[in-house]
């Protein structure tokens, strides 16, 4: 997955991303950590093609996302957003949406990985219990767990997590087994740059067991450096620093 000198602004506004380069290799997990409002969610929107870059290219497997069919692109991506939306269906059905062909044991396995099982043990009706419209019968953290289980169930090569664990009340680490399956990588985990509080630090360290963390080192930063190893760990002016 690659951002190649991407420039993007919403409407006539100044660019949010101004010449960003980013390359994520298969089999890697990367956390993008930047201040609020700096464009992390925007990166995921461009990858998912909710918006198109004004200049530069976003590529998946070397192909510009504009040249991919909607079906193919959708099959490549699993997305988990901060505000997880659930359907007015059962707990089981909300997870199974990730892969309608999945077996019962696969659904339950994904649920277990995402720590959904305790929810089923708690809510009326268990796995067949309704979560309500939008998931309103569950807490924000529970909704995120269900959303993560749905994303893990989907057989998509790329997993994008945009503050996907922000509402969880305890540390959650993306199952390491996920990246043992080549078809399940790379992953990009989005986190706001942490304040120096124990809670924020804990969230960052458990966000997605990242192999690399991209941290914007100064503002306004415009250019990202690919996570190319320990040599790239020194922040440089106006760049994203890669930390292994
Ligand atoms: N739909 C939109 N229309 C206009 N401006 C937008 C839109 N979405 C985001 N922006 C602006 O683009 C900038 C980047 O927003 P974005 O949501 O990508 O930041 P972020 O890094 O994800 O922030 P946070 O950490 O708060 O989630 C912000 O200034 C925001 O106000
Ligand atoms: Mg965001």
From TrEMBL:
Listed Polar residues bias regions: 198-209
SUPFAM superfamilies noted in UniProt: P-loop containing nucleoside triphosphate hydrolases (SSF52540)
Compositionally skewed regions (Low complexity) per UniProt: 224-244
Domain of life: Bacteria
ATP-binding as UniProt keyword: yes
Keywords attached to this entry: ATP-binding, Nucleotide-binding
Residue ranges annotated for the ABC transporter domain, each copy included: 1-243
InterPro entries given in the database record: AAA+_ATPase (IPR003593), ABC_transporter-like_ATP-bd (IPR003439), ABC_transporter-like_CS (IPR017871), P-loop_NTPase (IPR027417), Type_1_exporter (IPR039421)
Keyword ATP-binding: yes
Molecular function (Gene Ontology), one example: ATPase-coupled lipid transmembrane transporter activity
Region Disordered, annotated ranges: 183-244
Protein name: ATP-binding cassette domain-containing protein
Originating species: Bifidobacterium tibiigranuli
């Amino acid at each position: 997955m690659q951002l190649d000198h991407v420039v993007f602004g919403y409407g006539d506004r100044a660019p949010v991303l101004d010449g960003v380069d980013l390359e994520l290799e298969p089999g890697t997990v990367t956390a993008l950590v930047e201040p609020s409002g700096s464009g992390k969610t925007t990166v995921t929107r461009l990858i998912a093609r909710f918006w198109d870059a004004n200049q530069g290219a976003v590529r998946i497997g070397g192909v510009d996302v504009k040249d991919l069919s909607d079906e193919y692109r959708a099959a490549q991506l699993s997305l988990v957003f901060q505000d997880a939306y659930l359907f007015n269906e059962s707990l089981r059905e909300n997870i199974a949406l990730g892969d309608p062909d999945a077996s019962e044991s696969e659904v339950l396995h994904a649920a277990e990985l995402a720590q959904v099982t305790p929810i089923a043990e708690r809510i009326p009706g268990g796995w067949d219990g309704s979560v309500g419209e939008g998931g309103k019968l569950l807490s924000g953290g529970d909704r995120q767990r269900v959303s993560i289980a749905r994303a893990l169930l989907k057989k998509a090569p790329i997993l994008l997590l945009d503050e996907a664990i922000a509402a969880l009340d305890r540390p959650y680490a993306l199952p390491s087994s996920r990246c043992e399956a080549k078809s399940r990588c790379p992953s990009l985990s989005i986190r706001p740059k942490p304040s120096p509080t124990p809670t924020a630090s804990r969230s960052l360290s458990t966000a997605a067991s990242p192999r690399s963390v991209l941290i914007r080192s100064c503002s306004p930063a415009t250019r990202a450096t690919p996570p190319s190893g320990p040599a790239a760990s020194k922040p440089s002016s106006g760049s994203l620093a890669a930390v292994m």
